[in-house]
Amino acid sequence: MGSLSSRVLRGRASPARGDGAAGDGGGRGGKRKRSGAEGPGDSDSDSEAEREERLLNTPRRKKLKSTFKYIYQTLFLNGENSDIKICALGEEWNLHKSGYFSSMFSGSWKESNMNVIELEIPDQNIDIEALQVAFGSLYRDDVLIKPSRVVALLAAACMLQLDGLIQRCGETMKETINAKTVCGYYNSAETYGLDSVKKKCLEWLLNNLMTHQSVELFKELSINLMKQLISSSNLFVMQVEMDVYTALKKWMFLQLVPSWNGSLKQLLAEADAWFAKRIKDFEGDVAFLESEQGSAFLPVFAHLRLPYIVSDLASARIVERDSLIPPEWLSSVYKQQWFAMLRAEQDNDIGPQELNEEEMEGNSMRCGRKLAKDGDYCWRWTGFNFGFDLLVTYTNRYIIFKRNTLNQPCSGSVSLQPRRNIAFRLRLASFDSSGKIICSRATGYQILTFEKDQEQVVMNLDSRLLIFPLYVCCNFLYTSPQKKTEAQELVTFECLSSYVRYQTSHQLSEVTGSEGRAGSKGFLSVGLMESSN
């Protein structure tokens, strides 16, 4: 509290010493007189200085312990010796110019000679309770912050520039991130400049958006925030990229129909039916994202990694049927994939030969799987991967990759090239009930070379860190990076041109816009061993 605390300490210390001298010292002095008359065998042999030291030190320690309680009760709650009144939101606080307010009431501030100050509260997050706690924090050394009140208190602390209280609010927010608080915390952190809280919220969302989906979370995620999540290579994808598309479809439906209150199991069917009805109302070959209602979502869908969706026939058919994505986008991706296949087949492309983290971040295949309990698992992720049939095995705390060519049946074509490369990153994580990571492991980006039917251990897990369910997430590149002028720039151009075209159309006309199910499991268990899933 600074000078305010010092003044109170000095004011309280004198009575304590006076009470001790007049009460305890006086009483004992009388007894010592009588004892002294009895002779030199008196048991009380302590010196006067030692007794005085005990009398002074013991009560002083007790008083220090309760000093802030005294300050809070006497000066803040009771308003004793107040020399300034703060008025805000119809309430009054009798405070003190010393300490926190000393700079405001000194020098050339216009408030220097004022005894009553009216505070304007432009921030709607601030209420009377938040101001009460914020002002009270000036008179005590601890503050009890409820997670349900932390945003309002943070707003008040930022307005009053209480750095210590701002820091405590940030710590509380980081400790209590969950599905109900994460979006509100993220928005508040962005508003009030708490970058560390914003980063923690984004990490939580990247880990939980796909692993722990919920209707409530989909409703709260803004377009800008969802765009950040979908564009990130750190998105913890479960199954395959098609499941990211499906999640976006459900999210977009809830953004457009926020009053829907069904369960997560019902959500996809409802979204499919709703979009199908809107598409029927459109005239001509118009995708939903090209409509007035859908154009706002174009920047989010533009970050889908479409090459890994159209590489699976069932997924490609669903995307075509849904008619959400503009046909120009899909045409560009089909062309891109066709050239990639020709390079792999006719140009003997053996896969990535140099590690390009930028390429991995922006264009890698994202896939994952949940291992419900400890056991033996073997699976492959669905889709055509240019003749590289990758089998993934979890057994005896090992994660093993195998390039299958002749040992196991495969539904698609298999490359018989002597060697093939893949670039990958493997991540494993376990979560608690609030979505926080309990334990995690990661390989970092690597390139492995496989001969035909060769297998390699990619991770050896410590049994002490194994907590199930265990979530496995991978990023892969199977082919050498294409030149951006050949593929990515074409897709990006189509995405941007579609967005600009239909935004412009919306501005120039007053035409009102009218208002699919991913059946793929995303992976196939392989009959090398019985799956425990």
TrEMBL record:
Residues 1-58 are annotated as: Disordered. CDD domains: BACK_GCL (cd18495), BTB_POZ_GCL (cd18305). Residues 82-177 form the BTB domain. It is found in: Nucleus matrix. InterPro entries: BACK (IPR011705), BTB/POZ_dom (IPR000210), Gcl-like (IPR043380), SKP1/BTB/POZ_sf (IPR011333). The keyword Nucleus applies. Residues 41-50 have a biased composition (Acidic residues). Keywords: Developmental protein, Differentiation, Nucleus, Spermatogenesis. Residues 182-269 form the BACK domain. Gene3D superfamilies: 1.25.40.420, Potassium Channel Kv1.1, Chain A. Pfam families: BACK, BTB. Its main location: nucleus. This is Germ cell-less protein-like 1 isoform B. It comes from Patagioenas fasciata monilis. The gene is GMCL1.
